[in-house]
Amino acid sequence: MRGKMPALEVRSLSKHFGEVKAVKDISFTVNRGEFFGLLGPNGAGKTTTIRMIIGVLKPDAGSIHIEGVDLSKNYFEAKSKIGAIPEVGNIYPDLSARENIDLVGRFYGLPKALRQERAEKLLADLGLMDRGDDFARKFSKGMRQRISIACALVNEPPILILDEPTEGLDVMSRRLIIDKVKEMNQKGSTVILTTHNIEEANKLCQRVCIINKGEIVAIDSPERLRRTAEKMQIVEVGFNKKIEAAWFRSEHITRVVQCGDKWQFYTEDPDKAIRDIVTINEKMDLKIASISTTGPTLEDVFVKLCEVP
Amino acid sequence: MDWNMYFRAVTVVARKDIRIYYRKAPVFIFGLILPTFLFFAFFVGRELDIHKYFPGFLAMSLFFTSSSVGPLIVPWEKQQGTFERLLSYPVSIGTIVLGDMIAGALFGLMISTIVGVAGIFLIPIAITDVFMIFIAFVLGNICFSSLGVLLSSPGAKTPANIMMLAALVRFPLIFVSGIFIPVSQMTGVGVYVTYCSPLTYLVDALNMSTGQVSVFPWWTDLLVMLAFALAFLALAVFVLRRRSLRGL
């Protein structure tokens, strides 16, 4: 029975701030051991949803069950099952890296020996062993975020909730954090990740939930979401000289986007779109240097669903 | 409610506050310097009976010390972004308020004990009721540390704004609490204003325990301080919860 219980169950969750409805009656479940992504444009309601799940905000309506435990009824028990990095979730600058991890371990009731053992392992895994006794205020953003993830992992939580954990980080810190999170997921922890980095979500998540304007617009695996948008195809063309997107207005081309030294033409009918491109090509005295067609990416699905211009 | 987890959260919050905010040398030194300056301001160059006014001075020192850092903790943490992180742990607003209160009360208790012991040996002040002074110290520190936590609960993320609010509340209290003019000598509306100040009851309890004139029975002083402490804590939880509903 317990094995089949979802890691997280969100039912009819709503939250408003004054006149603004930030989250509108959303429901979803996250299975045990799943890597689940929460995507959406800025102001979509992702962070508000996460803040309600981790108990920072109280919902106006709806329920949250963490491993079957109702957050509103058994607040402490439910919260002891999660490790989280909120969007605004800094570590204490006046404590050392080791002290920050130790403090969080105390909140979860870990005995001293276990706190020390885990702190040492996390510091080593995250490349901070030689800086363990330095005050966090001396650390770079990437190092602080690595300590932050160490704090979220110290209780080895069954559910890990990360709100944009790699935002604005250098490649090294980003990779260390992602590797550590993947390792936790492989060991059985459920991971819920919000990110703006769609490529990251595509690579990591087994399912993604796309939120826009406080509502869920899609929830499925990245692959299946791509398939739902298969009607949309991309013709990628390289030209011998500079062009303007406005030249390629046609009923078969819905969008024209420059991508490096190439141009992407979004279409539902690649054949007709290519014919239009060739016609315009001849008219404007252009030469095609390269041409290829691809299916939609997760980002294309995201853009389509969220109506981002 | 899991009370084990609840009390663990309270003690870890208090421990965190002491480690981060109270164990700093400037805070500790300020805690000792303030009563010294207050002593000079109070007694030097004035023809005051030091034995008569020492309980008022002691109460004032305790009041300022125990409510000094509390108002700043939540604004500091909100400004640094650690408050939201703290709330993501198995911690509730109630446990944060209680933990902050305990840290402030322990700090105030330590400083006021040092000031009290200095008074006993240097002046010397006679203690006529040791049990009463002990209870008055404990309850007084709890009460005014709770006031400090209440002052921190409005939404401001800027400690300077909260400091202004704290000064606005704390300074007038010392003039209406029987420190400079004993309650027994007050007349008219002033007496009723004095009754509304929690500091009045601490001054009265300390007067009683040092053999000076007290106005209220001992149990009134202690019960009123306890009632104020509970009211301050409940109000702090209420205000912070309201803020939390609006997004901190």
What does it look like?
In chain A, helix 3 crosses helix 4 (112-125). Chain A contains ten helices and 14 strands. Chain A has two domains: 8-221, P-loop containing nucleotide triphosphate hydrolases (Rossmann fold, 3-Layer(aba) Sandwich), CATH 3.40.50.300; 229-306, Alpha-Beta Plaits (2-Layer Sandwich), CATH 3.30.70.980. With 309 residues, chain A is α/β, with parallel strands linked by helices. The longest helix of chain A has 16 residues, at 171-186. In chain A, 43% of the residues are buried. The longest helix of chain B has 30 residues, at 93-122. Chain B has 248 residues and is mostly helical. Chain B has helices at residues 3-22, 25-43, 50-66, 70-80, 82-88, 93-122, 130-152, 159-175, 189-195, 198-209, 218-245. Chain B has one domain (3-243). The chains are: A alpha/beta (309), B mainly alpha (248).
Write a brief caption for the model.
The complex is a heterodimer of chains A (about 300) and B (about 250). Chain A has about 300 residues and is an alpha/beta fold. Chain A has helices spanning about 45-55, 75-80, 95-105, 110-125, 140-155, 170-185, 200-205, 220-230, 270-285, 300-305; strands at about 10-15, 20-30, 35-40, 60-65, 70, 80-85, 160-165, 190-195, 205-210, 215-220, 235-240, 255-260, 260-265, 290-295.
